[in-house]
Amino acid sequence: MGYRAAISLGVFQGPEDRHISHRALHHLLDALTRIDMDYLEMYPQTPDLYNSGVRYHQLVMPNGDDDDWQDIPTIRRFGYGDCEDLACWRVAELIVKYGIKAEPLVVWKEGADGSELYHILVGRPDGIVEDPSKQLGM
After folding, report:
1. Residues of the chain with confidence (pLDDT) below 50
2. What does the pLDDT read at residue 102?
3. Burial grade of 100 (CB within 10 A; 0-12, 13-18, 19 or more)
4. Of 29, 34, 58, 126, whose CB count within 10 A is highest?
5. How crowded is residue 49: how many other Cβ atoms within 10 Å of its Cβ?
6. What residues contact residue 90 under an 8 Å CB cut-off, 6+ apart?
7. pLDDT tens digits, one per residue of 94-116
8. How far is CA 10 from the centre of its chain?
9. Structural contact between residues 89 and 36, judged by C-beta atoms closer than 8 angstroms
10. DSSP alpha helices (H): ranges in 45-82?
């Protein structure tokens, strides 16, 4: 089954901590991308994301507070991932397999209740922005 690690953060509480929340999100995305890069370096025969057969599926717990982040082998085992999972896989493969210095991009909007809704995309140095979630069924 693998190892499950939970990280509990006291940020993402509202507009007053938006700056630190966004920095925390970028740190987490960088960590997942690096984990995926290590995996691809160890297992170069791993299919590219868009040829892997995985699909987009939102992984938010029923209470809305938790969000499972999955690395490449976990996504492949379950057959699906959500936006940060898929975007980090794609960024890692662009870097490791194709030498393209891509990065995860965070877009967000404020909900009617003041909450923040995040979506993770892939940014490439040539200005192309990919949305793996949309390409895989969102």
Report:
1. 62
2. 98
3. middle
4. 29
5. 27
6. 49, 102, 122, 130, 132
7. 999 999 999 999 998 776 776 67
8. 20
9. yes
10. 72-78
